[in-house]
Amino acid sequence: MGGNTAINLGVFGVFVLITLFIVYRAGSRNATASDYYAAGSSFTGPQNGIALSGDFLSAASFLGISGSIAVNGYDGFLYSIGWVVSWLLGLMIISERLRNTGRFTLGDVLAFRMRQRPVRAAAANVTLVISLFYMIAQMAGAGALMALLLDVHSKVGQAVIIAVVGIVMVLYVLVGGMKGTTWVQIIKAVLLIMCVTLMTVFLLGKFGFSLSAILETASRNTPLGPEVLEPGARYGGTPTSRLDFISLALALVLGTASLPHVLMRFYTVPNAREARRSVVWATWMMATFYLCTLVIGFGALALVGSKEIASAPGGENSAAPLLAYEIGGAVLLGVVSAVAFATILAVVAGLTLTASASFAHDVYANVIKRGQADPRSEVKVARLTAVVVGLLAIGGGIAANGQNVAFLVALAFALAASANLSTIIYSMFWKRFNTPGTLWAVYGGLGSCIVLITFSPAVSGTKTSIFSDVDFAWFPLGNPGLVSIPFSFLCGYLGTILSKEKSDPVKQAEMEVRSLTGIGSGLK
Amino acid sequence: MTKAILPPTDSRPARGGRGFATFDDPGTSLLVDEAGDPDFVALQASPDFLELRRRITIFVVPATCGFLLWYLGYVALSAYAPDFMGTPVYGVLNIGLLFGLLQFASTIALTLAYARYARRKLDPQVDAVRSLTAEDQA
After folding, report:
1. Is residue B119 one of the residues assigned to a domain?
2. A67 lies in a domain?
3. Could you tell me the CATH number of the domain that includes residue A491?
4. Per residue in B53-73, pLDDT tens?
5. For residue B91, what are the domain limits?
6. Whole-angstrom distance between the N-terminal and C-terminal Cα of chain B?
7. A239 touches chain B (CB under 8 A)
């Protein structure tokens, strides 16, 4: 690519310095647990909404979706829609209730009317597994991105960069806590949205503000021809691949709002109304973002062409950077690259914070210390966990670098939908739901996801698998959601009705009233 | 005199004699226990809370089922009826692209509709339930 490594590194370096300074200013007095986990619940709805979109929009969404649209046309677009629609679930079912019921983690909500220790341990297990999988995928992606944007092709060079990403992310979390991390998300989200909006306006202007002119030019620049605007390029084909896509779509629409780092963001606002406003803002940001990627994807096809995209290092992922170079030269390419880095950094920082909060608040304070932990030592444990999680992510990212780990992202969504959503919904809406039901649903969803993915073509048996020379796959789909989500609901149901344990009606009343009104939560 | 500070938007129905605080008996209007903490079991059975729950249910359940069906239907059509989705509508625009853009439109419309409904119908009712406790008087 014609980019200039010095410019790319320079823009990125400036971003890291500015954000580190802001994080330092925002978080220098991080004394209490509430500050570290939830920024003292001091953010407004709009601020948190922007941060939510920052937490959620990964480099995979930016480079991956625009690239997928450039290569697969309609099917890439289809993939992006689930991520917008899914926020409705967060808006109407999850955000307000979660804010009213819990304080810092998902475990607060799930364990509200259950036996504390086993349920909190289960909630923490799921959060840690999802966070680690998602982080390893992001870190491995960072390595691939370096190859593309900085011309770093040696494995050692990429490992160094993955380590740098990991260290900066841990610094954000340690120095800034939730407050600093939230500001990083806000800055990154604003940069990302500005970047894609400007590119979109520029593209539209170049084609006389006619979307159909872009689509028409695009369809002339691909071997698919006009079929690029129709379904089937990516997910058509065999009945299995179609079913696989349905499974993916189900996990996306049900899993997004149940991802642990998204859930945790709802605690950074002071009350349920602000939580609702933050989802409204996030929805606007998402809709803008994905409409822009639609234009950028087809614009890349129209101006760069599928042949050049496919032959560039990084393949699909290079569509947006190539387009940026085409329309804005080395400077715009530098900006787009820096935004892509910033995106990875911010997402992994959010995940690190969530994982550390879950371990310190659920496992250390409530399982090990049985609720008697001193808040200061709890924060200390959280910080230590953040360092450990950071090291694990760096190690995992380096090990997974170059592997085809895209399935880990889809797996994280499937896990969130199978283990978190079912238990959240049952504990909010089903009076009889009890501790065994919660444990069955969590471990049923978690277990079935992991087992199914292990024996799927993503892990073994095909050329793109991790273990391509052995074949122990018997589950045909690469996305377990279609099976694991209903399975988790079924487990929750069976676990509840088969156990003799009665749910506590007084606690249930408290949870229901509190989740809908905030009474008893101390929130205004 | 808790009655006097209720906002004008308060629309709670009569609660059969409850709600008239006097100096002799300051606690009877509030669903709280001796310590002043909310009595959640009584709150859960109170007409105001049941009304709140009813208002949430009649919006959220149909809206959630509706958007999930609309989205999954769209995905299923894309997967299993690509020819239908490829039918041209206007210029290069085909049914699939149109439905896709409509997913964005319906998501935004439903988001705004829920936000408006919550502001007008749910928030006042939440305030009505909260006024049964000492929660906001601290």
Report:
1. yes
2. yes
3. 1.20.1730.10
4. 999 999 999 999 999 999 999
5. 20-132
6. 15
7. no
User: Chain A contacts of B103, Cβ < 8 Å?
Assistant: 81, 84-85
Number of domains observed in the structure of chain A: 1
Interface check for B58 against chain A (CB to CB < 8 A): the answer is: no
How far away is chain A from the Cα of B22, in angstroms, using its nearest Cα? Answer: 24
A524 lies in some domain: no
- Chain A nearest CA to B95, separation (Å): 9
Note down the domain range covering A60: 5-24+34-517
CA distances from A89 to A79, A127, A274, A278, A421 (A): 18, 19, 16, 13, 10
Distance from CA of B74 to the nearest CA of A (A): 9
Separation of alpha carbons B130 and B138, rounded Å:
12
Q: How far is C-alpha A191 from the chain's CA centre?
A: 18
| Alpha-carbon gap, residue A382 to A394, rounded angstroms | 18
Please indicate, yes or no, if residue B84 is contained in any of the structural domains. yes
pLDDT digits (tens, 9 = 90+) for A477-511: 889 999 999 999 999 999 999 998 888 999 999 99
Contact in structure between A441 and A128 (CB atoms under 8 Å): no
Give a yes or no: residue A523 inside a domain.
no
* Facing B56 at nearest CB: one of A291, A516, A524: A516
Domains identified in chain B, total number:
1
Q: Is ipTM beyond 0.85?
A: yes
